[in-house]
Design a protein that fits this description.
130 residues, mainly alpha, 2 domains, two-stranded antiparallel ribbon, 5 helices, 6% strand, DNA-binding, GntR family transcriptional regulator
Length: 130
């Protein structure tokens, strides 16, 4: 089961953070068809957020056809976003872990690592478009 968290520095609203975390878990194969999302009550208790925030996130995921709510039972994954290259994730994750360790050893904090990664990512994406 997915464990939600909120990042006050992300710039995303709490409901969008929940949506994004479910989408990432679906894309990485961490959530599969039939898996149950945490109950609204559990998410509210864990994150100390308004139940309407969780409901809004779950409704958006349902609108996108990724989950379905079963009243009195819970919210369940109806489809995944995982692609067929999941086997490549393990080695890539290991390389990324090594890169992160080197970045920390070089003295970069989390915000600097994220900034470096995102600017490089966007730069490469722009090169791919051109």
């Amino acid at each position: 089961m997915i464990e939600f968290y909120l990042d006050g520095r992300s710039g995303l609203s709490p409901y969008l953070q929940l949506v994004q975390q479910v989408r990432h878990a679906l894309r990485l194969g961490l959530l599969r068809e039939g898996d149950q999302l945490p109950t609204v009550k559990d998410v509210v208790a864990r994150l100390a957020i308004n139940p309407n925030t969780v409901l809004k996130a779950y409704r958006e995921l349902e609108h996108d056809g990724l989950v379905t709510a079963r009243p009195g039972v819970g919210t369940f994954v109806t489809r995944t976003l995982a692609d067929t290259t999941l086997a490549a994730h393990g080695p890539l994750r290991q390389e990324l872990r090594r890169w992160l360790a080197r970045a920390r050893k070089a003295g970069l904090d989390d915000e600097s690592i994220e900034a470096l990664f995102m600017t490089t990512f966007r730069s490469v994406a722009q090169e791919d478009i051109a």
